Amino acid sequence: MGKNRVGFGPCEKRLFLLCWTAYFATYICRLNFSAVMPELNTLGLFTKAQMASVSSCFFITYGVGQFINGFLGDRIAPRRLRGAAVFLGDERLCAVDGMVADPAPCGGVL
User: Fold this and answer.
1) Fewest 10 Å CB contacts: which of 1, 16, 32, 81?
2) Which residues are CB-neighbours of 81 under 8 A, at least 6 positions away?
3) Sequence-ordered list of residues with C-beta below 8 angstroms from that of 15, at least 6 positions apart, any chain
């Protein structure tokens, strides 16, 4: 008779923490943009149409990502898929950061 495991092993705990951190960071960024939209409009930094475009991009990117990652999740091991997602997500953020005046958070790499 096999031994029943109680709880999660170290690998499962790390995977959960990694997934939770990536989701939390994405969610906070989306919520922060929604919170500052009225102020950005009041200051005249962005028009309502521009802010709506950014919100639409969040929505569309999320939907497309669900399809792509669902397809990849059926074909690639979870550990490799999560590692690639975190690495590529970081690279995208650094690329966006390189488009602003001060790319200091990425060490000025871009």
Assistant:
1) 1
2) 69, 72, 73
3) 78, 79, 82
Q: Give residue 10's identity as a one-letter amino acid code.
A: P
Closest CA to 88 of 103, 71, 102, 68: 68
Phi, psi values for residue 78, rounded to 5°: -55, -40
CB neighbour list of residue 41: distance below 8 Å, 6 or more residues apart? 47, 48, 51
Q: What is the pLDDT of residues 17-75, one digit of tens each?
A: 877 887 787 777 777 778 888 888 898 888 888 888 888 887 887 788 788 878 888 89
**pTM of whole model > 0.70?**
no
Q: Is the dihedral of CA 58, 78, 93, 38 positive or negative?
A: positive
Task: Copy the structure tokens of residue 75.
Answer: 């074909």
What whole-number distance in Å separates Cα of residue 46 and Cα of residue 30? 17
Tell me the residue type at 55: S
